[in-house]
Amino acid sequence: MVLAQLGGSIARALARVKDATVVDEKVLADCLNEISRALLQADVRFETVRDVKANIKGTVNLDALAAGTDKRRIIQKAVVGELCRMLDPGKPAFTPSKGKPSVVMFVGLQGSGKTTTCTKYADYYRRKGFNPALVCADTFRAGAFDQLKQNASKAKIPFYGSYIESDPVKIAVEGLDRFKKEKCDLIIVDTSGRHKQEAALFEEMRQVSEATKPNLVIFVMDGSIGQAAFDQAQAFKQSASVGAVIVTKMDGHAKGGGALSAVAATRSPVIFIGTGEHIPDFEVFDVKPFVSRLLVYLSGMGDLSGLMDKIQDVMPADELVPKLTEGAFTLRLLYEMFQNLQNMGPLGQLFSMIPGLSAQFIEKGKEKEGQAKIKRYMTIMDSMTEKELDNTNPKLMNESRISRIARGSGRLVKEVVDMLEEHKRIAKMWSKLPINNFRRPNNRDSL
Ligand code: GDP
Predict the structure, then answer these.
(1) Which atom of ligand 1 has the smallest separation from the CA of 190?
(2) What is the CATH number of the domain that holds 378?
(3) Domain count of the chain?
(4) Ligand 1 centroid distance, CA of 280 (Å)
(5) Burial label, 23 (beta-carbon count in 10 A; 0-12, 13-18, 19+)
(6) One-character DSSP codes across 347-410
(7) Are 147 and 114 in contact (CB under 8 A)?
(8) Structural domain of residue 262, as residue ranges?
(9) Which burial class, exposed, middle or buried, applies to 344 when counting CB atoms under 10 A from its CB (0-12, 13-18, 19+)?
(10) Ligand 1 center–CA 117 separation, angstroms
(11) Ligand 1 centroid to residue 214 C-alpha, Å
């Protein structure tokens, strides 16, 4: 994703301000030009870039600043603030509530990743305890129903569609009736796409929307369409009451500017991004982590806010926070995390986000070995006593305990020592993470 490069460029522009001996109008102008260039290169639309630049300039009025004011900080704050403002439409998207039937309709051009994303979205909520169902109201594309059926079966989500019925409205209504009777609390309707925006597509969308009265219309957009994103998003917004955006294919050559432009065009938030063809390749999108990712090079740290989100998928905050705040990162906590991680998709995604961890623990492209290592660690921990797992005393693990654990787990003493060292290292790193950033436990289901 070129977003990382965008982050780097913006960070470099800000670093130049930081390093300047005197912060004057010229330094500010150079910084703004550099940021504009970076945004344009990331495919953000020219008009949006122009507005961003003007707004930052308006916020940072160097002449009016009192002597002694930290101009560098003011510029940095203005840049981050403006990027957040551009991305934050100010009103959150509708989020489904467990046990209350909601209808969510997906719209977008053919090939945008709409059908794949419907299943990812359903699966996301299923993992949160919802009872979702999928309805294929795409009668335009041959094979659409088969594709949805295949994805839905893989994710074990009930689905409805027809090979013979050609009226999408009829299918949508039938599917809705059926799943409402079955007490599904999140009914997702996949609609037809076309190769390009055209009247027939928008008319069909309008009819399905009128018949199903969705609580939320999600516009799915291919992240790699670049500059065209703004116009496409705006066209959909004008024809359907788009309330949220999902940008797909952010794993490939997508420069990321499309996501920024789509928010600007629809004034609706991007709620998720697609990062691959598979069901778990789906990430919650939140403005602040996104912007912090842009600035990742500035701090020299990983994307900690994004990391927090991932961690909460692995271990709910109400379980994790008390454990961490009690003080030590025990072996039991590490064991539970490994357990949860094994149930959820690619580990690399999480580990690569922890600064300093990926290189030593799971090398890129060697995820299989990483998994094997985790398995080995868990076998070793299976041979530990309750006291050892909950231990916070560094002196407890003496030679005799280590040999006993090695014998019990059928592993070498050296392997047990390695594992304990690894645990120490991870615990040290975790102690530096801003755990206060965890979402409050009672907000766990909101996006
Ligand atoms: P639809 O025509 O809009 O329903 O699009 P599909 O769901 O059929 O997706 C079109 C193609 O894009 C398929 O090959 C998908 O596997 C692929 N795809 C969807 N989302 C993503 C994503 O986030 N990343 C990548 N790399 N491919 C995706």
Answers:
(1) 4
(2) 1.10.260.30
(3) 3
(4) 13
(5) buried
(6) HHHHHTTSTTHHHHHS-TT-HHHHHHHHHHHHHHHHTS-HHHHT---TTS--HHHHHHHHHHHT
(7) no
(8) 102-294
(9) middle
(10) 8
(11) 23
* ipTM over cut 0.95: yes
DSSP result, 60-72? --GGGSPTT--HH
Domain at 9, CATH number: 1.20.120.140
Both tokens assigned to 182:
């079955």
Ligand 1 centroid to residue 118 C-alpha, Å: 11
pLDDT digits (tens, 9 = 90+) for 75-128: 877 887 787 777 777 778 899 999 899 999 999 999 999 999 999 999 999 998
Residue 365: predicted pLDDT: 63
Same domain flag for 44 and 147? no
Q: Do residue 289 and residue 317 come from a single domain?
A: no
Domain of 109, CATH number, reads 3.40.50.300
- Alpha-helical regions (H) of 105-167: 114-127, 144-154
- With bands split at pLDDT 50, 70 and 90, how would you rate the model's confidence at 328? low
Do residues 375 and 407 both lie within one domain?
yes
More confident call, 218 vs 303: 218
Ligand 1 cavity residues, CB under 6 Å: 108, 110-116, 147, 193, 248-249, 251-252, 274-277, 281
Q: What is the mean pLDDT of residues 332-339?
A: 75
202 & 231 share domain: yes
Residues 337 and 404 in one domain: yes
Distance 116 CA to ligand 1 centre (A): 6
Residues 14 and 137 in one domain: no
Mean pLDDT value across residues 404-413: 94
The top-scoring range by mean pLDDT among 262-266, 283-287, 408-412 is 408-412
Please identify, among 294, 323, 355, the residue that sits at the C-terminal boundary of a domain: 294
> Around Cβ 245, how many Cβ atoms within 10 Å?
29
pLDDT given at position 366:
63
| H or E element, residue 302 | none
- Whether 442 maps to a domain, the answer reads no
Give the residue from 86, 19, 50, 59 showing the smallest Cα distance to 256. Answer: 86
Query: Closest Cα to atom 20, ligand 1: which residue?
Result: 113
Last residue of a domain, one of 247, 262, 294: 294
Check whether residue 146 and residue 277 sit in a common domain.
yes
Q: Is 94 a domain residue?
A: no
| Domain membership flag for residue 17 | yes
CA of 116, closest atom in ligand 1: 7
Are 5 and 297 a contacting pair, CB within 8 Å? no
Asked if 306 and 289 sit in the same domain, the reply is no
List the residue whose alpha carbon is closest to atom 26 of ligand 1. Answer: 276
Report how far Cα 155 is from the mean position of its chain's Cα atoms: 19
Nearest CA to ligand 1 atom 16: 277
Question: Distance, CA 405 to ligand 1 centroid (Å)?
Answer: 48
